[in-house]
Amino acid sequence: MTSEHTGTSENYGAEAEILKLARVLGVEPERLGYLARVDTDDLRAFREQVTDTLFDANAAALQRMALAARVVPVGVLAKIAEKVFGPLLCARIAGLVDVTRGVDVAKRLGTRFLAEVAAELDPRRANAIITRIPLDTVLAVAVELARKEDWITLGRFVGHLPDPTVRRALEQIDDPGLLRIAFVLDDKRRIDHVIGLLPAHRLGRLLTAASADEDLWAPALDLLNHLGEARRATLKPMLSGLPEGFRDRVQATIKEIP
Question: Which pLDDT does position 255 carry in this prediction?
């Protein structure tokens, strides 16, 4: 996608959905640029349909594997998962296994492997397991995903973790990374809530980070579009310190600022 961001919030939403759809299809986002004018909700529905199709393929065989996993000792199963199944197959099975057993296996997997599984996982199907993963494990995986700059995976999981875990995980992410995560968050209605979990000064830092990198303008402006009025108002005192071009864009987005 181009770094020249001139659209409305709807354009930003379509751009984010194209990034996520490209990940699901395993193609470069530029190949899907023709979808930029499609309604954001339609793009999201299509992405979820594609995801469901991929996860439901060979469902009977996956179900048999999940049933067989019930009788294998957890320690052995973890080794099989990492050395034989691989991250893609583990992700496909995760939503089919017993929750307690799935959590026990996850505790025994290495951080890098868990990050690879997370990248292939559909959180909607494994929500019960995700919410019970120990905090230290979640934080370690978040750091690994940030190291790999896998903002899409991080954005998918924000809506499936309890608030205290989200707060701790986002403490591990720098300001540019947090902007990119917010841009691809699955449920943009949660943005104001998620920002509210962070220290009050963090929002100003996000705007400062965006002002220094034009590639971050779209994520920052999209974030502002999804903030409540009260939180937007806290940004007024710092606008004069922003570069003129970015300041104009922010003012156009937050129309109540004179």
Answer: 67
